[in-house]
Amino acid sequence: MSTYPLELLDLDGPLTGEERGIRDVVRELVATRVRPYVADWYEQGRAPVRELAAEFGKVGLLGMHLTGYGCAGASATAYGLACLELEAGDSGVRSLASVQGSLAMYAIWRYGSEEQKQRWLPSMAAGETVGCFGLTEPDHGSDPASMTTRARRDGTDWVLSGGKMWITNAPVADVAVIWARTDDGVRGFVVPMTTPGVTAREIRRKMSLRASSTGEIVLDEVRLPAEARLPEAVGLKAPLSCLTEARYGIVWGALGAARDCLHTALDYATTREQFGRPIAGFQLTQAKLADMAVELQKGYLLALHLGRLADAGRLRPEQVSVGKLNNVREALAIARQCRTILGANGISGEYPLLRHANNLESVLTYEGTSEIHQLVIGQRLTGLAAFG
Predict the structure, then answer these.
(1) Distant-in-sequence, close-in-space partners of 197: CB < 8 Å, separation ≥ 6
(2) Taking all residues of the chain, what is their mean pLDDT, rounded to a whole number?
């Protein structure tokens, strides 16, 4: 009798009934709303983002770890489990929820005025309004401190000019949280996408995250009222704290892609016969499966530990870097190894392996490259910054 990987160490045991219930709701949603269609979305290079946002809003997935304003107020661990299930469907689908909840909504929830929260958060939690988060620029990815997007005062207004690149949800978004340099340092602004001077262009010909909407935002003398600025966002620490929120979701999400690959490889290996028996009966195949299952368990235990720290209010950014560095790196290795078990079938769109592997190449890069997280951890270990 075969055992699925996360059953090996009885990893359901440490979860509460509420956490298991939330996980099961998201798993069922992915099974009915994502899995039957995602291969076609990936092949076509587009997904029904607004329809998915509405579906996610109905079950309280968007900004689910935030409180008030229509948000579910779930635990960080429950949010992580939701990210795992979403990314078991597709990394792009999880990115939709992460960018909406952990970047755009979190920025407004944490740094916005009460008026901004009341205006935007309820409709974003319901999936009626789609948000995006504009920090990365064409020439400034890992070094956001060098951003060139500017915001200058003109009377009581602000005028923004610049550009943002690789912005998830941008082509379909209703609102963007834009970060810009001012005379007083980096500040955040809530920018309706219909504001004159704002244009969004979809990035095409992607080989990864194809079931996700990604775009470039151009800001050409965009005039905003004073109340568009996030009043509590002062300095670069504000957007970086939002990234920490999103990275936490990735720690869990990458495990979903890895789990889906490993389940697929197990099912295939126990039914595919060569030399007169299932390939799962060969020692080399079992060695691959065992090693991957061990790494998946370790990644899950790491994510669960970080979730408990977050729920206790004790999670630190460098701890999230440990999780992101390890879990994405191992998930990508699992996806690649599972592909070898399926042989030529592993590159077919009939199976999710190469889709997950391609997606994880992007996950390895966004929200901080592996090298950046290594330096964050290195700085914590040595007390010396090595970013320059």
Answers:
(1) 160, 219, 220, 221, 222, 223
(2) 96
Which residues, 6+ apart, have CB-to-CB distance to 86 below 8 Å? 26, 30, 34, 61, 93, 94, 97, 253, 256
- Multiple choice CATH, 5-125, 1.10.540.10, 3.40.640.10, 2.70.98.10, 3.40.50.720: 1.10.540.10
pTM of the model: 0.96
CATH number of 131-228: 2.40.110.10
With tokens 């009222």, the residue in question is 225
When pLDDT is cut at 50, 70 and 90, the band that residue 388 belongs to is: confident
CATH topology assigned to domain 237-382: Butyryl-CoA Dehydrogenase, subunit A; domain 3 (1.20.140)
Cα dist. 301→77, 239, 304, 326 in Å?
Answer: 12, 28, 5, 12
**Surface-to-core class of residue 74, CB atoms within 10 Å of its CB (0-12 exposed, 13-18 middle, 19+ buried):** buried
Q: Which amino acid is at 93?
A: V
User: 196 near 160, Cβ under 8 Å?
Assistant: no
The total of other beta-carbon atoms located within 10 Å of residue 370's CB is 16
Helix (H) or strand (E) holding 258: helix 237-271
Identify whether 87 is a catalytic site residue.
no
**pLDDT tens digits, 313-342:** 999 999 999 999 999 999 999 999 999 999
Q: What is the per-residue pLDDT across 53-93, written as a single tens digit (0 to 9) for each?
A: 999 999 999 999 999 999 999 999 999 999 999 999 999 99
Tell me what the mean pLDDT of segment 119-143 comes to.
95
pLDDT digits (tens, 9 = 90+) for 174-226: 999 999 999 999 999 999 999 999 999 999 999 999 999 999 999 999 999 99
Active-site residue, selected from the candidate residues 55, 361, 367, 371: 367
Task: Please tell me whether residue 363 adopts helix, strand or coil conformation.
Answer: helix
Q: Which two tokens stand for residue 40?
A: 């076609």
